[in-house]
Amino acid sequence: MKQRRVSKKKVTIFILTLIFILGTITGGIYLLSKGNNENDPIKIENVDTIKGYDYILRSNATKYYKSLFKQLKDVLEADDIDEEKYAELVAKLFVADFFNLDNKISKNDVGGVQYIYKDYRDLFIKDATINPDTAIYRSVKSNVYGERKQELPIVTKVGVVKGEREDFIYGDIIFEKAYMINFDVEYEKDLGYQTSGIIIIIKNDKKLEIVEFDESSLN
Asked: Fewer Cβ atoms within 10 Å of its own Cβ: the N or the C terminal residue of the chain?
C-alpha cells in the first residue's frame, strides 16, 4: 500500500490552531474565575467580643466605632466597673452604629441593636425599617456585592450629656434610676440626617440597655 506523506505546512497549521484553542479556553476560564471573584458577596466577620456581655465587634465597623468598643471593653473588664462611663459608652456606641448607614449591607442590617433592651428590639427594628416617619434604613440599597453607589452617612463623632437619673416605667416594669442621656452626632458630610436626641438607659441584670430612643431632647 502506498503511504501518504503529511505536509509540514499542515502540521504547523494544526499545531498553531491547537495552541489558539487551548489559549482561548484557558483565557475564558481565567476571566470567568476573575469575574466570579469580583462578584463574591462581602464577607463580614466578628473580630472581637466582650465576655459576659455578648457585645460583638464586626469587621466592617468604622475606625471611630472600633475605638469606642475598645473603651467599653476596658471598662467592663476592669475590676471595678465605672457604671457612669459604661452608660456613656453604650449611648455613644449605639448612636455611632445606628446612624452610620454607609457600612450597612442592606436596609435590614440595623445598627446598634445589641444595645437595645430585649423587649424593645422588635419595635425598634420596625421603626428603623418600616415606619415611614422614623425608618431611616428604609432607603438603604443592598450592598451585598459591594457595588452600591448610594451616598450614605458616616458618623465621625458622638457627644453625650447625662441628665438627672429617674425611675422609668416600661410596660409593667419599673426600672429605678434610669440614665437620661442627651446626644448629638456629627457626620463626615451633612446629608440631612438626625443630629441630636435623647436615649434612656436602664439596668437589666448586669447589662445597661437602651429602653427608649427619641429625636427630642431633655432640654
From this structure: N
Q: Strand 196-204 to strand 207-214: parallel, antiparallel, or no bridges (unpaired)?
A: antiparallel
Q: How many residues does the chain have?
A: 219
- The answer as to whether 17 is a domain residue is no
158 by DSSP, 3-state: which?
strand
Question: 15-29: per-residue pLDDT in tens?
Answer: 556 565 655 555 555
Tell me the three state secondary structure of residue 148.
coil
Query: Per-residue pLDDT for 198 more than 90?
Result: yes
Give the least confident one: 15-24, 49-58, 105-114, 175-184: 15-24
Is 97 part of any domain?
A: yes
**Residue 89: half-sphere exposure toward Cβ, Cα within 13 Å:** 21
Range of the domain at 137: 46-141+153-214
What is the per-residue pLDDT for 214? Answer: 87
Rg of the chain, C-alpha, whole Å: 28
Helices (H), 43-172: 63-76, 83-98, 121-129
User: What is the domain count for the chain?
Assistant: 1
Q: Within a domain: residue 38?
A: no
Q: Supply the DSSP symbol for 116.
A: B
Query: What values do phi and psi take at 109, rounded to 5?
Result: -90, 70
Contact 188, 156 (CB under 8 A): yes
